Amino acid sequence: MLDPSMEPDQLAEKQRGLAGSRQNHPFKEILYRLRDPGLVADTVMRSAAEAWHVISPSEFSGLYRQVRSHTMCSPARLGTLHQGVKYVVHNRLEGDLVECGCARGGSAALMALTLRQLGESRNLWLFDTFEGLPAPTADDPDYEIAELFTGSCRGQLDEVREFFRRHEVAEGVQFVKGLFQDTLPLSPIDRIALLHIDGDWYESVRVCLESLYDKVVPGGIIQFDDYGYWKGARKAVDEFLAQRGIRLPLKRLDYSGRSLLKPRA
Ligand SMILES: C[S@@+](CC[C@H](N)C(=O)[O-])C[C@H]1O[C@@H](n2cnc3c(N)ncnc32)[C@H](O)[C@@H]1O
User: For an engineered disulfide with 241, which of 68, 101, 104, 246 has Cβ 3.0 to 4.6 Å away?
Assistant: First the structure.
């Protein structure tokens, strides 16, 4: 906020500073990301896929068009979530669907729409601050860029609820507001068939795995949205799997997304 009691030159300087920080934010990130040719190539492919799904007659594209304005996830990652829900239903895996990090609700609504298309009803748990991203910590190796995003990716709870109502998929959806660190350990979830972790930072991803990994049923799926994009997210996954002695391959979905299938035995 600008303080009206400031001297005119102080005010001008503050305004320059605010404008500067707004402009530097994406610019600083773009410079950082451009150093990775893999991401540049992925961005081109993602744009082509986004354009294709706007006109494609496929079943997935139809669902994608309903959620695309409310999601930051790529079509490739949304596509594997869609397939994941179908796999869980067709294989009659027991358990709920859980998303940690739903923001404006797009990827979660895609799961709900897929359930409806299959004529299936299951609990869908959505965890979020609904106040945007918390601050990253020193455990995030790209902290300098990550901290610019504190408070961003905000989805307001009322608006997300309304989005689900509008699409007539609100039944069975449990919205849990608060930090994962506070809400996950207390959540009364018994079994999880599909877990989507989309919390960006080290601590956020780590607490999801600590609290929920053991609840994922054999044959269940865990999808990580940020493994390739945020170094803290990757570190949390790699550390957790190593510390538990879990040697399961992570499937590459695109530059950022990975998924893991929990063995049946
Ligand atoms: C990238 S957004 C999720 C994008 C969403 N899945 C979509 O379809 O666009 C990340 C979300 O994770 C939430 N988040 C990250 N860390 C969190 C934490 N520790 N506790 C609660 N919410 C968290 C943020 O509030 C934000 O809404």
Answer: 246
265 residues of the chain, pLDDT tens digit each? 333 443 343 334 344 333 333 445 678 888 888 888 899 899 999 999 999 999 999 999 999 999 999 999 999 999 999 999 999 999 999 999 999 999 999 999 999 999 999 999 999 999 999 999 999 999 999 999 999 999 999 999 999 999 999 999 999 999 999 999 999 999 999 999 999 999 999 999 999 999 999 999 999 999 999 999 999 999 999 999 999 999 999 999 999 999 999 998 6
Atom of ligand 1 at shortest distance to CA of 70? 9
Q: How far is the CA of 64 from the centre of ligand 1 (A)?
A: 20
Neighbour count for residue 243 (Cβ, 10 Å)? 9
Residue 149 CA to ligand 1 center (angstroms) comes to 11
Cβ partners under 8 Å of residue 71, min gap 6: 78, 103, 104, 105, 106, 107, 110
Question: pTM of the predicted model, to two decimals?
Answer: 0.90
Q: Locate the domains of the chain by residue range.
A: 8-261
SS3 of 171-184: the string is CCEEEEECCHHHHH
Can you identify the CATH homologous superfamily of domain 8-261? Vaccinia Virus protein VP39 (3.40.50.150)
Which of 66, 111, 153, 226 most suits a substitution to test ligand 1, by most atoms within 8 Å of the C-beta? 153
- Ligand 1 atom with minimal separation from the 128 CA: 22
